[in-house]
Amino acid sequence: MHTFYGPFTQIVTLRGLSLRGALKDEQLEIITDGGVIYDEYGYITSVGKFQDLVLISKTQNTCYVHIDEPLVLLPGFVDCHTHACYAGTRTQDFAMRMAGKSYLDIARAGGGIMHTVRATREASLEDLTDLTYARLQRIREEGITTCEVKSGYGLTVEDELKMLQVIADLKAESSIGLDLVPTCLAAHIKPPEFESQKAYLDYLLHELLPTIRAKGLSQRVDIFVEETAFDVENARYYLTKAQEMGFDITLHADQFTPIASRLAVELNARSADHLEHSTDREIKLLANSNTVAVALPGASMGVGDKFTPARKLLDAGAILAIATDLNPGSAPMGNLRWQASILAMYEKLSTAEVFAGITFRAAFALGRQDRGTIEVGKRADFTAFKLSDYRDILYQASHQQIIDGTWVKGKVF
Questions:
Q1: Residue 376 burial (CB count, 10 A)
Q2: From the CB of residue 275, how many other CB atoms can be counted at a distance below 10 Å?
Q3: Residue 138 is inside which H or E element, if any?
Q4: Domain match, 402 and 276 both
Q5: Predicted confidence (pLDDT) per residue in 1-60, tens digit
Q6: Can you give the CATH number for the domain in which 64 is found?
Q7: Do 161 and 309 fall into the same domain?
């Protein structure tokens, strides 16, 4: 059985656009009065003018769903960097930053990530599941159909496995309306019970990562490389060993100092995320690699720092994705579309560049090339907006009520 939806006022397919570099709005394919057909497995079989698809549908066993209001259809959004699984709050940290304390000042004073670690360790599996489920429901209501979720607030084998089990359980939950991509960020910071970075990373390599592989809880490993977290040499050691074990790797890079993106390129990481303090040297290295540069505008706003140099990265030829960094400390606001529109205004990004950054380019950062565009053979992951003009999607970025619904592999939410 095939399913046929239409006619949509506009379908913004995003097909045919380059994976890397700058994009012009004139390059967008906009199908007016369009339709889309997908099969029982949730993969697109046809997309085009509605009247043309009517003829095709008559030759198939097709369920037709008529659209009788103005709707604009886009590929489902992809948030490729979140910390949505956690317990507790960091209200005090936020107030301290507003009063002039820096992110690093707060971390040195014992706040920051360790505050969330303590709360997450104390939370039961059930409570942590309920908290995470509520956040993921809000994420889906923002038009996101694929969401990466990191561990990293446990920092023990038991608590990291608890976090990853929560993510796995929610991934299997049919009502969640999201495809979740789990990432092990146990190397978030060194917990105080370990004397050295190396000792803690060896603990993860010998005690945690083999269990994660055996249980199939994650295929990705992340590390935070920064003054208050892990240095480059220890990060290189850890990530190299993780790759040898079969994990994909990604890095928190250049958030406060321009050091880690070079390592990301050296190790052919899937992505280097943050990049607020990347210089021309790092930009050039990223542009000449397949490592995705992931901008996190919510973190820039949350700590009062500059934005990722998105315009320079695109003009140099880099692959730029945009994500929320949803977390309890530096980026509690979420809302991918709103964050992306603000980044676009400050960095002078085209609508095409924003859409690419939150769809197929973000999907590439996760190794999920089966989604992010509306074209034959791709997953039927869509987001529909109660609009007549696609440009209103970013113009009305703070208005969730314009979202009509989402499809995840053909299932409607």
A1: 14
A2: 29
A3: helix 125-141
A4: no
A5: 999 999 999 999 999 999 999 999 999 999 999 999 999 999 999 999 999 999 999 888
A6: 2.30.40.10
A7: yes
The whole-model pTM stands at 0.96
Q: What is the mean pLDDT of residues 288-297?
A: 98
Q: Are residues 182 and 281 in the same domain?
A: yes
Q: Are strands 411-412 and 179-187 parallel, antiparallel or unpaired?
A: unpaired
Domain that holds residue 57: 2-76+372-412
Q: What are the structure tokens assigned to 84, written together?
A: 């949505």
Torsion of CA 215, 216, 220, 223, to 10 degrees: -10
* Element of type H or E holding 252: strand 248-253
- pLDDT 10s digits, 101-140: 887 778 777 678 888 999 999 999 999 999 999 999 999 9
DSSP codes of every residue in 16-44: T--SSS---GGG--EEEEEEEEE-TTSBE
Going by their DSSP bridges, the two strands 77-79 and 144-150 should be labelled as: parallel
Q: What is the pLDDT of residue 102?
A: 80
- Give me the amino acid identity at 131: L
Out of 328, 350, 365, a domain closes at 365
- How many Å apart are CA 250 and CA 319, to the nearest integer? 14
Q: What is the separation of C-alpha 47 from the centre of its chain, rounded to a whole number of angstroms?
A: 26
> Which pLDDT score, from 0 to 100, does residue 400 have?
82
* 189 and 59 in a common domain: no
Q: What are φ and ψ of residue 324, in 5° steps?
A: -90, -30
Burial of 89 (0-12, 13-18, 19+ CB in 10 A): middle
Query: Which CA distances in Å does 345 have to 24, 138, 357?
Result: 15, 25, 14
**CA–CA separation, 241 vs 151, rounded Å?**
19
Residue written as tokens 């005690």? 207
pLDDT score of 369 more than 80: yes
Predicted pLDDT at 53: 96
Question: How many domains, in total, are found in the chain?
Answer: 2
How many angstroms separate the Cα of 27 from the Cα of each of 24, 126, 343, 350?
6, 47, 21, 11
Maximum pairwise Cα distance, the chain:
69
* Average pLDDT along the chain: 96
CB atoms within 10 A of CB 217: 19
CATH number for the domain including 226? 3.20.20.140
